[in-house]
Structure formats: C-alpha cells, structure tokens
Amino acid sequence: MKKKILIFTGSRADYGLLKPLISRIKRDKRYKFLIAAGSHHFSKNLGFTYKEIIKDNFKINYACQVKIKNTTFSDVSQYCGNSISENSRYLEKKRPDIVILLGDRYEVFSFCISSFFLQIPIIHIHGGEITEGAFDDSLRHSITKLSNYHFVSHNAYKKRIIQLGEHPSRVYNFGALGVENIKKTKIITKKILFRKFKIPLDKKIILITLHPETQSNIPLKKQIKIFLSVLNHFKNIFFVFTYNNADPEGNFFINEIKKFQKKNKNVKIFSSLGVKIYHSLIKNVDLVIGNSSSGVLEVPSLKTPTLNIGNRQKGRLFSRSVFCCDNNKKEIKKKIKKILFSNLKIKFDDIYYKKNTSILMFNKIKNILNKKKHTKKFYDAA
Asked: What CATH fold (topology level) applies to the domain 3-175+354-369?
C-alpha cells in the first residue's frame, strides 16, 4: 500500500507558499498524495481561490463545506467548531499517514485539532514565529504543541520551538517556501503587467494588503479608517489593494476600501491575484505597505521596500528593507515620504532564504514516513 501524504491549505494565505512542496510531492508516484482545501478557497468574496489550485493542475480531494458569512469573533469560534467535526469525518475515512500544515490561521488550527485527536502525525511549517498583534500568534504556538515535527524558516524560530518543549531532533530549519517560490517565478515585465491591469506607468505605485490587527489597542473598524485617511494626502500615487484575510471585521475592511475607491480614481482593488501576478506586482511597484507576513518574509527577496504597519507582525525577524511604524496618520505619512521621495539608500537581504527548501522538506518527509513511532515527550531546554 502506498503511504498517504495529505497537505491542507486553508486559504490563499498558505496555498502560494505550499505550492513548491505540493509540486514536489505530486511528482513522486511512490506516494498517494491528497490535497484538502478549507472553505475560504470557495468563497466568492475572497476570490474563489480554489480555481488557482485547479489551474496549477492539482486535484482537490477534500473541500471543507463549513461557511462563514460574517467574521466576528463569535463567527470564527463557531467556524472552528464546525470545521473540526467535518474535517474529522474526512480524516477518519482517508487515514493519511502524515498531515502537513503551514502557518497560524484558524482554519489550519481546526484541521490540526482534527488530525491530533485521530492520532495522525502532523508536520508543521512556519512555527516558532511571533506576531504580537494577531490572535494567530497563540494559534501558531498551539499548533506547534499539537504537531510532531517542525519545519522552520530561521534558526531563531528553531530555538523558540525547542524552548516550547519540542525535541531538537524534530525541528529543522529549511528556510521559507515562499522565498523559494519567488526564486522560481518568471516575473512578468512591468510594461506588460501594468497595461494588462490598467496601472499607470508614469506614477509611483504602492501595493497594499492590510489585515485587521486582532490584538490591538485600536478598535478594529478604526484601524482601516486611520490608514485610508492617510492615503488621501498622496493624490499622485497609485494604490493597488489586495483583499485582507477573513479575520474579525475583515468584511468591514473590504467595504471601506471599496468606498475609498469610489471617491478616488487612483485606486485599484483585487480580491486575489495568484502567485505569479502577485510576485510580479511586488517586483514592479515602488513600495509594499500593510501588515501581511509576505511583506516580511517574501517582499525583501524581490528587492522592493516594505512599510509594515502596526504590531500584527511584531516579533518576527525583519530584513533591513522592512520599515515599521504605528497605525498613526502622522507616522505613516512621514514614512511614505521618506521611502519614496528622499535619497534613502535601501539595503536588501534574504534572511529567510535557503537553497532547495522544498527538496529538503520532501526528503525529510520521506524519512519521517519510514519511522514506526511518532509519539513525543516534552523536552526541557537547558
């Protein structure tokens, strides 16, 4: 019998990162490979991102049917409970030999709980990181404790997972999959890309992804209002927005951005772009602004500066091309001017890059599948 490897992707937030590993595993016919997709992939409001999976010639073996109409904290809680129940039914039927999860989203957390109680070994990617401004931070550490093996993106994160009581022999620094993906992406030229999406070639362009900061002193609805009010000061800059994740008040953020677009001609909005177009835009714009993990992990590899807003990513290691400021009108305005209109010399470094990340991961996955026992004990770090 072929051993079964299952990868869960909850939304666009993790699919683009997982793509190189999915491609690597799919090519090896010695294994039965399954893709489980969270319901956010099938949301019209979030761009029907399941189509990108199919377009990449991957088969979705399981589609979670649990819907989330609104994104209040109560809705997220109910979504998790219902997802755990549905995911468990599928996992009990298919019984994969290993489940692979990435990140810290509540969809991933739900799938992790289902796998844990069915005693299916779990490999967790991108653990050990800190994001103080999001409740995802606690979810990530919880996933770590429920998982059996850990693929991290930096030695600092490896050390933190060991601090959490995971044995060093089960924690591996293979670098970030998203950075490897960038290295392999054929970037679309600026002229072709901008003409296709009707983006002006003669203006400064800023790419924006701003998620609700779910652990903040600033009320969720006020966060997007503060940010958008700053952009009114830059009429000669063209703003390209991508949708935020399905977090509490995420729908409010999207509606406010749509209202902002109606009042301003220098705005373009995309629900989802796909990996190639997204990376190509990053490469060809002048600045990336927001509080997405991609601004910290991936954007520096494309030699574009990042302005990170607020505390959502606070705690992660930043490259020198990532600048930070509070979600404050005066500070954001000042930072944009400094980055785009001064003689600032920006230095770029690839702190999350390792050669052959997906190969290293897949080789370790094959090794793990040959193990007879996956139980673990708490490791007391010195």
From this structure: Rossmann fold (3.40.50)
Phi, psi of 251 (to 5 degrees): -65, -35
pTM of the model: 0.94
> Per residue in 321-369, pLDDT tens?
999 999 999 999 999 999 999 989 999 999 999 999 999 999 999 999 9
User: Comparing C-alpha atoms, which of 302, 337, 334 is closest to residue 321?
Assistant: 302
Instruction: Return the number of other C-beta atoms located less than 10 Å from residue 10's C-beta.
Output: 27
Condensed to tens digits (0 to 9), the pLDDT of residues 73-105 reads: 999 999 999 999 999 999 999 999 999 999 999
Alpha carbon distances (Å) from 376 to 122, 168, 209, 341, 362 = 12, 11, 39, 54, 21
The 3-state secondary structure of 259-310, one letter per residue: HHHHHCCCEEEECCCCHHHHHHHHHHCCEEEECCHHHHHCHHHHCCCEEEEC
- Residue found by looking up tokens 């399981």 in the block: 62
Same fold, 3-175+354-369 and 184-341: yes
Query: Where do the domains of the chain lie?
Result: 3-175+354-369, 184-341
Strands (E), the chain: 3-9, 31-37, 62-63, 98-102, 122-125, 149-152, 171-173, 204-209, 237-242, 267-270, 287-290, 306-309, 322-325
| pLDDT band for position 106 (cuts 50, 70, 90) | very high
Identify whether the C-beta of residue 25 lies closer than 8 Å to the C-beta of residue 228. no
Residue 109: how many other CB atoms lie within 10 Å: 22
Cβ-contact 125, 100 below 8 angstroms: yes
Alpha helices (H) along 120-176:
136-146, 155-163
Q: Classify domain 184-341 at the CATH topology level.
A: Rossmann fold (3.40.50)
DSSP state of 135: T
Q: List beta partners, residue 63.
A: 37
